[in-house]
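Thread amino acids onto this structure.
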C-alpha cells in the first residue's frame, strides 16, 4: 500500500494514499514515561484535532498506559483485541495512533485489525500534503513524505527477501518492483533536495536583502492565533481558522508601528510537539524569515491547558532551526478566553517578561507594540560614523548593513548618520572608521 502511494506521489507531486477524507477514525493514544500528557483529562485532544484537520470523523478513542512499547504491535495483545472490537462496533475505516509506529508495527496492526493504520507523523504529513499550495511547500512536503516512507519500503523489501531466502530463480516481479520503487524514490529524493536547495538559496538572498529593515516573525504552536494577530496588527487578510495547520506558507506584510515606522511582519507555519524531524528539516526554506528575523514573537494560546508544554515544544523546534539565539518575546494570546485567571498567573510567573494580549479583541495590543518598539530599539543604535573617503571597506559595509539617513563630505572624510545593529558597531570600527553612538 505504501509503495503505491509513493509511486503515485511521483506523478502528482504529492501523496494521496493516506488521505483520510470523510473516513471514520478510531484514535489510540499511549502514555509512556516520556509522554505524561496522555494521562491528562482529555488525552486525545490534540490527535483528535489533527484527525479532524485531515478530514476524518472521530468515532471512538482508546488510551493505554505502558512502561514500554510492545515491539510487535506497540500496544499489548489484549488491547489489540479491544481495539478490534471497537473498530468493528463503530464500523471504522482507519485507526490513528497518536504515537509513531515502527513500519513492522503498522503492518502487524493492519493485519490484526483489518483496517488502515496511520501513525502521528503520517497523519501530520498527510495534512501538510493536502494543504500545500505553493511549489515550495509541495516540494518540501513531498521530500518529507518520501524520507519517512523510504525506510518502510526498505524494511518491506528485506522482509520479503528473507522470506525468499536463497531463492535463486525465485525472484519474482514483486521484488524487482520493490527495488525499482526504492531506486526511484532515492532518485526523487535527490532531485527534490536539489530543487529545495535552489529555493533555499534564493530565499536566503531575498530575505537577506531586507536585512536593513526591521523584520519580525510570528512563530508558535499551531492554532495559537498567529494569523489572527497578523491580521489585527497589519490589517492583512490572511486565513484564520480554528483548525490545525491552516497556515503553511510564510506571508509577510508591512506593519506600521506608531512612533517607530515600518516593520515587516511575517506569519509562519505552526509547530507541534513531536513534529516529524524530516518535516522540520525540509521546511527550513519556508522558515527563512523566522531564521533571519530581528525579533521573534512567540505566540502562545494561553487558554490551552497545555500551554506550558506547547511553549517547550516550540522552543525545541526553534532550536532545531537554529533560531534560538534570536531575540524573542513571548506573547500570551487569547487572554479573552482564559476563564481561570490563576493559570495565566502561573504562566506569567514562569515567563515574567511575557506580554498578554487578545488578537481577537485587541486587548493588550498597545503594550505589545510598545514592547516590540523597545526590543527593536534596544538592538539598534543611532550612530555618527566618520570614515576616510579612501576607506572603501567601511563605505561598502555601511551601504550594505546600515540604514543611512544622512551622508556628507568634509575634507577627506565622509560622515554618515545611520541606524546600525549594535553588534555590527565593532565590525565598522575594525575598518578604521570612527563610530560615535548617538543614542
Ligand atoms: N478567543 C480567541 N480566539 C482566538 C484569538 N486569536 C485567535 N483565535 C482563534 O483561534 C483559532 C486559530 O487562529 P489562527 O490565527 O488561525 O491560528 P494560527 O496560529 O495561525 O494557526 P495555524 O496557522 O493553524 O498554525 C481561530 O479560530 C481564531 O479565531 C484570541 O485572541 N481569542
Ligand atoms: Mg495561521
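Threaded sequence (439 positions):
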Amino acid at each position: 500500500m505504501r509503495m503505491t502511494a509513493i509511486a503515485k506521489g511521483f506523478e502528482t507531486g504529492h501523496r494521496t494514499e493516506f488521505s483520510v477524507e470523510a473516513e471514520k477514525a478510531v484514535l489510540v493514544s499511549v502514555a509512556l514515561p516520556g509522554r505524561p500528557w496522555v494521562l491528562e483529562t482529555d488525552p486525545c485532544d490534540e490527535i483528535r484535532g489533527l484527525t479532524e484537520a485531515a478530514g476524518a470523523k472521530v468515532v471512538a478513542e482508546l488510551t493505554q498506559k505502558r512502561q514500554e512499547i510492545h515491539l510487535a504491535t506497540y500496544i499489548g495483545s489484549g488491547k489489540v483485541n479491544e481495539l478490534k472490537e471497537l473498530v468493528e462496533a463503530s464500523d471504522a475505516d482507519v485507526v490513528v495512533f497518536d504515537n509513531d509506529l515502527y513500519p513492522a508495527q503498522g503492518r502487524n496492526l493492519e493485519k490484526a485489525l483489518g483496517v488502515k493504520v496511520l501513525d502521528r507523523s503520517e497523519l501530520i504529513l498527510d495534512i501538510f500534503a493536502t494543504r500545500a499550495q505553493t511549489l515550495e511547500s509541495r516540494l518540501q512536503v513531498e521530500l518529507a513524505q518520501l524520507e519517512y516512507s523510504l525506510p518502510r519500503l526498505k524494511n518491506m523489501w528485506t522482509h520479503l527477501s528473507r522470506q525468499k531466502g536463497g531463492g535463486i530463480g525465485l525472484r519474482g516481479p514483486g521484488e524487482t518492483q520493490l527495488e525499482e520503487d526504492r531506486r526511484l524514490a532515492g532518485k526523487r529524493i535527490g532531485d527534490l533536495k536539489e530543487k529545495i536547495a535552489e529555493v533555499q538559496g534564493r530565499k536566503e538572498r531575498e530575505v537577506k536583502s531586507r536585512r536593513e529593515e526591521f523584520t519580525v516573525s510570528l512563530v508558535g504552536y499551531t492554532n495559537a492565533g498567529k494569523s489572527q494577530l497578523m491580521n489585527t496588527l497589519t490589517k492583512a487578510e490572511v486565513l484564520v481558522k480554528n483548525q490545525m495547520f491552516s497556515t503553511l506558507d510564510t506571508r509577510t506584510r508591512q506593519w506600521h508601528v506608531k512612533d517607530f515606522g515600518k516593520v515587516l511582519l511575517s506569519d509562519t507555519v505552526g509547530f507541534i510537539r513531536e513534529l516529524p524531524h524530516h518535516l522540520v528539516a525540509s521546511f527550513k526554506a519556508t522558515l527563512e524569515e523566522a531564521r533571519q528575523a530581528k525579533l521573534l514573537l512567540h505566540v502562545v494560546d494561553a487558554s490551552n491547558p497545555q500551554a506550558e508544554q506547547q511553549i517547550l515544544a516550540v522552543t525545541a523546534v526553534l532550536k532545531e532551526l537554529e533560531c534560538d539565539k534570536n531575540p524573542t518575546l513571548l506573547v500570551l494570546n487569547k487572554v479573552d478566553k482564559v476563564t481561570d485567571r490563576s493559570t495565566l498567573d502561573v504562566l506569567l510567573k514562569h515567563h515574567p517578561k511575557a506580554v498578554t494580549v487578545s488578537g481577537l479583541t485587541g486587548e493588550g495590543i498597545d503594550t505589545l507594540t510598545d514592547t516590540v518598539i523597545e526590543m527593536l530599539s534596544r538592538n539598534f543604535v543611532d550612530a555618527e560614523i566618520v570614515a576616510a573617503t579612501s576607506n572603501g571597506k567601511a563605505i561598502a559595509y555601511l551601504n550594505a548593513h546600515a540604514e543611512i539617513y544622512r551622508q556628507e563630505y568634509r575634507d577627506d572624510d565622509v560622515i554618515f548618520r545611520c541606524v546600525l545593529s549594535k553588534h555590527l558597531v565593532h565590525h565598522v570600527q575594525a575598518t578604521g572608521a570612527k563610530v560615535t553612538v548617538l543614542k
